[in-house]
Specification:
The protein has about 180 residues and is of the alpha+beta class. The protein has helices at about 25-30, 45-55, 70, 75-85, 160-165, 165-175, and strands at about 1-5, 35-40, 60-65, 85, 90-100, 100-105, 115-120, 120-125, 130-135, 140-150, 155-160. It contains 6 helices and 11 strands. The chain is globular and about 40 Å long. Its EC number is 1.13.11.54, 1.13.11.53.
Length: about 180
């Protein structure tokens, strides 16, 4: 997985949006934000993914195939929804089987976007309460395993005054040492 600061320039969200020169983000910075990742080769990935799922208390999983063909008429709507800045009240964990895309996470307290390029073999955990978004890259395809602690659910809470005071947001900020 490659991590760097998003350049915030207008244009296609599916492009790299990397500064020139690039501003890489270290594993230590991601650790401070409680963003976790592993690189697990796709061939033979099941035992390691199962081990991490067990360690983190994940009991359910499904498969998502984000393509025009896979989502049909919902494709454009889903891509727009995924790219709206939001948080979840549960961790978001994805293991990439094929294709590629970008998860952008808000760094706190700077409020800068950090772009995470995910490719096959990347397992990413985005903590509950962090503002983030997702988009495909120019290949327009990603297939991923989604893991869930309980029943599969994906409920985005778009950033607003209300989400700034969401208990999961407050708990996340306290966990990373930001805010009261």
């Amino acid at each position: 997985m490659r991590a760097y600061y998003f350049d915030n320039l207008p244009g296609d969200q599916r492009l790299l949006h990397d500064y020139v020169p690039s501003r890489p983000v270290s594993k230590e910075t991601l650790d401070k934000l409680n963003v976790k990742y592993w690189i697990i080769p796709v061939d033979g990935h099941e035992p390691k993914v199962d081990e991490i799922a067990k360690e983190r208390g994940y009991k359910n999983r499904d498969l998502i195939n984000v393509t025009k063909e896979g989502l049909g008429e919902l494709y454009e709507e889903k891509i727009k929804t995924f790219f709206q800045e939001h948080l979840h009240e549960d961790e978001e964990i994805r293991y990439i089987l094929s294709g590629s895309g970008f998860f952008d996470v808000r760094e706190s307290p700077s409020d800068e976007w950090i772009r995470l390029l995910v490719e096959p073999g990347d397992l990413l955990v985005i903590p509950a309460g962090i503002y983030h978004r997702f988009t495909l890259d120019e290949k327009n395809q990603i297939k991923a395993i989604r893991l869930f602690q309980d029943e599969p659910k994906w409920v985005p809470h778009n950033r607003s005054v209300e989400t700034d005071t969401n208990p999961h947001r407050i708990q996340y900020l306290k966990a990373i040492g930001v805010g009261a």
